[in-house]
Amino acid sequence: MTNKELFHETFSQLHASDTLYEEVIEMAENRGKRRRYHTLPKAAAACALAAALGGITVFAAAHRDFFQSIFGAKGQENVEVHEVEMDGQSWTAPAREWETADENTAERLAGDYTAQVGESVSVYGYTLTVDEYLIDENGIGAVTYTLSNPDGLAGVCDVGYGEYYMSPDVPMKEIYMKSTGGKNFDHRNIVDQIRTTDTELHAVMYFAPFEKLEEGEEIQIIHSGYEIGENGKAATEEEQRITFTPDSFLPSDTYTSEAGYTAHISPVGILFDAPAFEKAESGWTTQKLLITYTDGSVYQAEDTDIDNIIVGCCSADGGLLEVFNRLVDTEKIASVTVNGPDGEDLVFTK
Amino acid sequence: MLTKEEFACAVRDHKDTVFRVAFGYMKNRDDADDIMQNVFLKLFKSDTAFENPEHLRSWLIRVTANECKSIFRAPWRKTENIEDYAEQLAMPTPKHTELLSTVMGMPEKYRVIIYLFYYEEYSTEEIAGLLGIPPATVRTRLARGRKRLKNILTED
């Protein structure tokens, strides 16, 4: 089979739905009936939480480095809304605002749920050490790790917003997460600039599972690479795994809306239950998340600052999971507001 | 402007191509569906006189690419679990599933070019014209994308 035949057989399996066909015809005839759409960003309301950044947060000694990495800016600059020009096209890229977390709050909310791993594996000269992690009862969390190579970290490419990607020109391929039960995670790797050196990359992997984890299910951080032979093809391929079993889960609080939707929020992320998705006519993607605290301040991820959410994914059962880029004090939440599947705002309260 | 019959034929004949290109960019079926609707709405309103089916197809791909690039796209986006999606599809062999997962696991700039080259069978020059980027850039990205696929592809 030629490569083109292989591609043809593979991608010919992807089809637009028949329902969609009818919708397109109807939309064209009606000229204006549309489903949801990610529009160009409109002017977002000013964030009430004008976080004062720049100072170095001092966390409680017990988990200082870990909390500084997962809840802090980790040396990353805030990103303003900006226009991006690439390949002759332009678009508006959203802002990301990091926020420092109060050390006592972090310790109070999450201190009892962090877990050390401290294991290392090596692939083609790149050593991965998984340091510490935090996971909530919905499977949302963050894990810190170190990638080291005494010869230097060739191939680490910045893809923007602090995220990195390995160049295909080096033998290290990627670091990703999976459960031993075969469940996949959506994740993003953000570089900790404060601790990273020429030979050690420190990073945080923020993650959310595509399927609910079973009790006692193990999680694997997979470190993979390949050695390129003289013919340009991989002569050998190697994959090493670090496995750990979470036994302490950060609790989440259940919030409900008047319409009967439910959400579960922990200091690291939020899960919207599947029924909300099922009620939607054509799927639901939140484009607004406002967490309003009892003092009136707001953690906002909407339109031009949507990147204040680091990971968002749809679970296999139709739920929706989002990972925060900061610590959320769940004891001080007044309400959570998102755009609902029917276009109206949904306000969740405990 | 196309008649309703011509428009219906265009939707029928090209909706999968538009969907696949949009999916290649967005990695999310809902987003790809939305892109597709907008593209065909533009077609419906377009006064372009299409010379032949190939002209229409390349016009649709170009508009799809522009639509994907011009909408509000955050580095953070809701993505789908490609492995789960692949399992729902009637892939002939695990190698096909692996190919889809690997291609969709690449950065956007590689996966769209790979799709257009291998599936739609456009030349690198034609892809450059469709996406509005230099042919040399297309060739570089194609070569880098192929490196990622070296365990799956055979020597052509």
What is the structure about, briefly put?
The complex is a heterodimer of chains A (350) and B (156). Chain A is mainly β and 350 residues long.
Characteristics:
heterodimer, A: 350 residues, mainly beta, Immunoglobulin-like, nine-stranded antiparallel sheet, five-stranded antiparallel sheet, 21 strands, 40% strand, B: 156 residues, mainly alpha, Arc Repressor Mutant, subunit A, 2 domains, 8 helices, 70% helix, 1% strand
Topology:
The complex is a heterodimer of chains A (350) and B (156).
Chain A: H1 3-11, H2 18-30, H3 64-71, E1 82-86, E2 89-93, H4 103-110, E3 115-123, E4 126-135, E5 141-148, E6 156-160, E7 163-166, E8 172-179, E9 185-191, E10 200-209, E11 219-228, E12 234-244, E13 253-257, E14 262-265, E15 269-272, H5 274-279, E16 288-293, E17 298-302, E18 309-314, E19 320-324, E20 333-339, E21 345-349
Antiparallel strand pairs in A: 1-2, 3-4, 4-5, 5-10, 6-7, 8-11, 9-10, 11-12, 13-14, 13-21, 14-15, 15-19, 16-17, 16-20, 18-19, 20-21
Chain B: H1 4-26, H2 29-45, H3 53-70, E1 78-79, H4 82-88, H5 94-104, H6 108-118, H7 124-131, H8 135-148
What is the name of the CATH superfamily of the largest domain in chain B?
Winged helix-like DNA-binding domain superfamily/Winged helix DNA-binding domain
**How widely separated are the two ends of chain A?**
58 Å
Measured as a percent range, the helix fraction of chain B is 55-70%
> The biggest beta sheet of chain B, please?
none
Apparent shape of chain A: globular
CATH class of the domain at 107-244 in chain A: Mainly Beta
**Unreliable residue stretches of chain A:** 31-60, 279-283
- CA distance, first residue to last residue of chain B: 42 Å
Strand content of chain B: under 5%
By CATH, the architecture of the domain at 107-244 in chain A is named Sandwich
Order of helices and strands of chain B: HHHEHHHHH
Number of strands of chain A: 21
Largest interface in this structure:
A-B, 73 and 65 residues
Rg over C-alpha atoms of chain B, rounded to the nearest angstrom? 16 Å
